[in-house]
Specification:
alpha/beta; binds FE2/S2 (inorganic) cluster; 16 strands; 2 domains; binds flavin-adenine dinucleotide; about 260 residues
Amino acid sequence: MTKRIETLKVIDNKQIKKDFFVIELAAGGKIPEIKPGQFVEVKVENTPGTFLRRPFSVHDVDYDKNSIKLLVQVVGNGTQTLSEMAQGDHINLIYPLGNCFSLPDAGERSLLIGGGCGIAPMLYLGKFLKNNGFVPDILVGFRNSERILEYSEYKKIGEVFITTEDGSEGEKGFVTDHSMLTSRNYEMIYCCGPEAMMKAVAKYCKKKRIACEVSLENLMGCGIGACLCCVVETVNGNKSTCIEGPVFNINDLKW
Ligand SMILES: Cc1cc2nc3c(=O)[nH]c(=O)nc-3n(C[C@H](O)[C@H](O)[C@H](O)COP(=O)(O)OP(=O)(O)OC[C@H]3O[C@@H](n4cnc5c(N)ncnc54)[C@H](O)[C@@H]3O)c2cc1C
Ligand code: FES
């Protein structure tokens, strides 16, 4: 798939929760086909210490508007600068990057699991699945009710189940503690979030013999396979997360 370097215009930047922003960027012309799970590398201008581009999952795509959305959590200088971008500002991207999630087989039931900002790639994946005749369930985990992200958007895709670590919304605990896992069966689980969460989900899937793909968020430098700083150990040797990932089948990872 052809990658491009392109400057897009900020057409919206909405703060959805403390430290979380959804930025919508429009291309001047037709945007390329973007597959769920793919990511972009963002050039953060005029910010000290952000020489390298920053990777973000594609949160949503609107082919009519030729726009894409990013869900950004402010954790440092680069994301702080992005959170301050205003309508009419421009952001340079390399995109679309990486591989993508695979579709389930016909009739298979799927579950999307997202933890914290790891829900970012699940919105576009959920819409993609729905457009292809699948109605996934969605299980999301957050620290507390103040940090629940995009609930109304995920509700449009399928049934949403919530866990919070402090029990302030949904069931108390981690996603793997949710009672829905004991009452529903799935053939495919997709997951993105903190590594500890993804490992717990992988362990659950292996025990239950459920196919599972996870999207890794390893630290990245170039995003295009040149620097090798994103390498992950797999059963078939070391792989670059930016080229051969970020989506991996759990059976390929040494987890
Ligand atoms: C494939 C991929 C997809 C991603 N998708 C999203 C997304 O949709 N939304 C989002 O908000 N973030 C996402 N991230 C993480 C995001 O790239 C980083 O948070 C961002 O680069 C931090 O930049 P910064 O300059 O603000 O912070 P920095 O000053 O670079 O770092 C601040 C802190 O964040 C930590 N950090 C930086 N990058 C990562 C990372 N990849 N994983 C864990 N900790 C990190 C640093 O170690 C440091 O402690 C993704 C990362 C990858 C690899
Ligand atoms: S980020 Fe440079 S090789 Fe993956």
